[in-house]
Structure formats: structure tokens, C-alpha cells
Amino acid sequence: MTEQTVEGAPEPAAAGTRPARGVRVSSALLRLDGTFEPPHLVVDGEIDMSTLPAFDDALARVVAHSSGDVWVDVERLDFIDVGGLRALAATACRLGLQDRRLVLRSVAPHLARLMDLVGWSQISSLLMLARVERRPHRVSHRPTARRAEPVPPYDVVEGR
Fold first, then answer.
1. Where are the beta strands (DSSP E) in the chain?
2. Taking residues 129-133, what's their average pLDDT?
């Protein structure tokens, strides 16, 4: 069993105390750092059957103590099993009932493909933003008349 530490809003908050402004989970396999306003959760590590309860709890806290769309940054996600994917899909569905969305930031191509294969990319309240890999720029010694506008590093991943 992996030892974990979890910090977050008291359930329920004691009278006269100020609730925490986020959630933090740290274990050997998973680190989560989230804020309630704005609703944002950074995932670093692996989500599997041993870390799923902590992930589920952290995500539920961010959703419960926030308003608006919930952002989950999965750029540092090394592995996620079907239980973790199911948790994301279920959270997106619950948020949709509140006219909110779950926005996944920096989704790896294989994760977007898997969500598409199981049909969860079709959930209307789930938005996946893929990290765009940029090619290295070639150095040109010719002067240019104008600079190119920076391109945002994300593309919207849509179901096929």
C-alpha cells in the first residue's frame, strides 16, 4: 500500500474556520495539485487502481468547491488505466448537468485516440486540448519584413 497525504477543504467546514483553497495529494506514484477558484487540477504521475481513490477524491473536491469549467492538466500524466478514464468521463457528464465542462489540457495523442475509440470523446461536456509538438525552427540569415504571430501550443481534439 502506498502512503499518501491528502490536504483539502474540511468536510464539512467547521464553524468560524476558513476552508482550504485547493487540494494537494502526494504519493510515490501520483502528485496532484489543485485550486478551487479557478478550478484547476495538475496531474503528475500515474493513475491506476492504487491511486484512483486519491485522484477521484481530489477531482471531486475541485468540482464541489468551484464554479465554471474545471481544467485538468494531464501534461505530466505518465499512465492512466480504464478506471481513471472512466472517472474523467463520469466527471464530465456530471459537470454537463450543471452546464459546466471538464477541460483536459495537454492531452497526449494516444490518450485522445483511446478516448475516441471508447466513445468518450463524444461527451459534449468534455473538451480535450492536445499538446502540439513544434518542429525546431531553422535559422535563416535572410532578414524578414515582419514577425510571425505566435501560435497557441494547443489544438482542440474533436471526436471523429
1. 5-7, 22-26, 30-35, 40-47, 70-80, 102-107, 126-131, 154-157
2. 81
